[in-house]
Design goal:
By secondary structure, the protein is an alpha/beta fold.
């Protein structure tokens, strides 16, 4: 690993800046302090964001972002399809055309490093300890401890640019989705938004327990509705909740029915958000919503909801291993979380909202 690079004369008033953070959705959501910091320091600059096309709504309405550069990952990943390799090359070549003065690789992987290098920007900032040799695309390499929270680690990338950190995680849902949510009766009145799914089985709290929780919140009159969200391919993770939705109009099934922008708009209107370790929790932080985060085999200090660790329930003992890819290990940790304690924290979160209503 080379020593962290330096630059004798950083561009103090850059004309054009690019943030590279293509994925994942939760990481994109919690990367917005980079844009907020750059805008505060360089109000005259044009700030753009390279992001996976499906996640573009997460940052497209942010006031600090002038333009989104969509990366069509799904299409360009199929290099064996005729014409795709040529399209991928054209995409890379196009990154050098705007003439960026400063590029920040906040992803730190091989692909993002390639994008960074392709911009040919004079100043290309990234992690000195990036994975997959991602640092090769950067000429200003910042040492940022892996043990730090993801948000703090990203903000370290601003140091060589002389840009003060602005820890502003506010998110902004696109206007069409916000307006549609405001018209949707299912999203009116106080409701609990439940996100019971995860790509990793070891991160999932049992769907049956989510269903018990939903029944308790409704029967107690704590909320008028329970709204269940998730991806279209994740419906099989939500059986007990879907059974409830089929027989109780107070349980709203939005699994696979929302775009990223629509999900953001729903989170913004929720009275409380209850979710596994997922993008939805980071959205709840961005919209300053009451929340309960359910964590098992992941490190809350590194990837938990920023500044909201007091709203996380996790039962992992000192010295116990954290590995979200180990399904048995993760399920064991998640099973330690009881319905009683999640209900108690949810009700505690709802009380301030009720008193302010």
């Amino acid at each position: 690993m080379p020593e962290a690079g330096t630059h004798d004369a950083p561009v103090l008033l850059p004309r054009r800046v690019l943030i590279i953070r293509p994925s994942a959705l939760g990481d994109v959501c919690r990367s917005v302090p980079l844009a907020a910091s750059l805008r505060a320091a360089w109000p005259q600059a044009r700030i753009e964001w390279l992001v996976q096309d499906t996640f573009a709504p997460a940052v497209s309405a942010h006031p600090a972002v002038d333009e989104v550069v969509p990366f069509p990952r799904s299409r360009l990943s199929r290099l064996w399809v005729p014409g795709v390799a040529k399209e991928a090359f054209s995409f890379l070549r196009g990154l050098g055309e705007p003439g960026y003065d400063v590029v920040i690789d906040a992803q730190g992987l091989l692909r993002s490093g390639l994008f960074t290098f392709a911009t040919r920007a004079k100043i290309r900032v990234g992690y000195a300890n990036a994975q997959e040799l991602g640092w090769l695309g950067c000429n200003v390499r910042v040492t940022a401890p892996r043990g730090a929270h993801a948000v703090d680690r990203m903000l370290k990338l601003l140091e060589p640019l002389g840009v003060p950190e602005v820890r502003d995680l506010r998110l902004y849902a696109p206007s069409p989705e916000r307006e549609a949510a405001a018209r949707d009766e299912r999203l009116s009145g106080p409701f609990a938004l439940l996100s019971p799914t995860s790509r990793w089985p070891g991160k999932r709290w049992a769907a049956g327990r989510f269903a018990q929780l939903a029944r308790r919140l409704l029967d107690a009159g704590a909320v008028q509705r329970v709204v269940v969200v998730g991806g279209k391919s994740e419906r099989d993770q939500c059986g007990p909740l879907l059974d409830m939705a089929s027989g109780d109009r107070r349980v709203v099934d939005l699994i696979g029915a929302t775009s990223v922008g629509g999900l953001m708009a729903a989170v913004e209107r929720a009275a409380v958000v209850i979710a596994n370790d997922s993008a939805v929790l980071h959205m709840a932080v961005g919209f300053d919503r009451p929340m309960v985060g359910l964590y098992g085999p992941t490190d809350v200090a590194r990837v938990g909801p920023y500044g909201r660790s007091d709203r996380v329930i996790q039962h992992v003992g000192v010295g116990e291993r954290l590995d979200h890819k180990d399904e048995d290990l993760g399920r064991g940790y998640m099973d330690r979380i009881t319905v009683d304690e999640v209900e108690a924290m949810a009700l505690q979160s709802l009380r301030p909202a009720a008193s302010n209503a």
